[in-house]
């Protein structure tokens, strides 16, 4: 048994551990190969203003089109490369693919902004902002505000100065920034104050039970006042039903994303979804 200094955890180095480590290395290899073989793809999930019906953008969510296992969701492979250099390479692929997609839609007269999820390992690269600027420079017809970064508060853990500086540079480029999964990390007021974010995304775990759980309602109410004081927008994720939307609207939270609006879809399906999107009449009636 080996105790990891400073952590209240014990690791048993046995054959299972050895096997896990082998599998881990194997996964990194596989993921690297998948990147080269262009097996990754981005799905897109709309984000809307429930009060006006406006579509405010789409979030890009990575998928692995695995030749044998079919479509794999990110939690099946991203955790393996979290601490690995490959997280940066996959992240760069995501940035370029999203910009390419914005351009592609632009050419079809569809002006649609994309938000992308940024891994901590990627965001903490000292040249992250410079590389983002270089990516944008490859697409001169794309206004930087068409791109938004979704970052986790925990990305700044232990290096708030570096991460807030990086995000300030990104913000100054004109790129949008949102704080993802808000409420699940430390929800530190210092982070909220120091990280230059435009939007707070309330984690879906607080939205799911909002119809029956008064504590979740109280949390949402608190986040809304906090956001107002800090001059940030709030978007709810995990809006699974129209009833969730009703409650959110009543609370004054207008921006939403979730299966109740649309599931993540391949890029090719987005234009049809946009053309057919009708905000539920009951939401528009809740205008206040
Ligand atoms: P996230 O950024 O918080 O994304 C929201 C997740 O919730 C997505 O899962 C989405 O499909 C799912 N979701 C959306 N609406 C609903 C709903 O109404 N109900 C429920 N139960 N779930 C909903 P997904 O696509 O499996 O992604 C999981 C996580 O993987 C993301 O959480 C994000 O942290 C990470 N991720 C996804 N794509 C990327 C990427 O390109 N780069 C990085 N670094 N991380 C990514
Ligand atoms: Mg996200
Ligand atoms: Mg989230
Ligand atoms: Mg999440």
Task: Describe the structure in your own words.
- It contains twelve helices and twelve strands.
- The N and C termini lie far apart (about 60 Å).
- The protein is an alpha/beta fold and about 290 residues long.
- The chain is about 45% helix and about 20% strand.
- α6 links the parallel β7 (about 145-150) and β8.
- α5 (about 130-135) runs parallel beside α6.
- Residues about 1-10 have low confidence and may be disordered.
- The strands form two sheets. An eight-stranded mixed barrel has the order 3-4-6-7-8-9-10-11.
- Bound molecules: ligand C2E and magnesium ion (3 copies).
- One magnesium ion binds near residues 180, 181, 201 and 203.
Mean pLDDT: 92
User: What is the CA-CA span between the terminal residues?
Assistant: 61 Å
Fraction of helical residues: 40-55%
The dominant shape is: globular
The helix tally amounts to 12
Sheet having the most strands: 8 strands, mixed, barrel
Structural class by sheet pairing and helices: alpha/beta
Total strands: the figure is 12
| Uncertain residue segments | 1-8
Please state the CA-atom Rg, rounded to the nearest Å. 20 Å
Quote the beta fraction: 15-25%
Order of helices and strands: EEHEEEHHEHHEHEHEHHEHEEHH
Strand order of the largest sheet: 3-4-6-7-8-9-10-11
Small molecules (ligands, ions, cofactors) in the structure:
ligand C2E, magnesium ion
Domain EAL: 24-278
Organism: Oceanisphaera avium
Protein name: Diguanylate cyclase
Subcellular location: Membrane
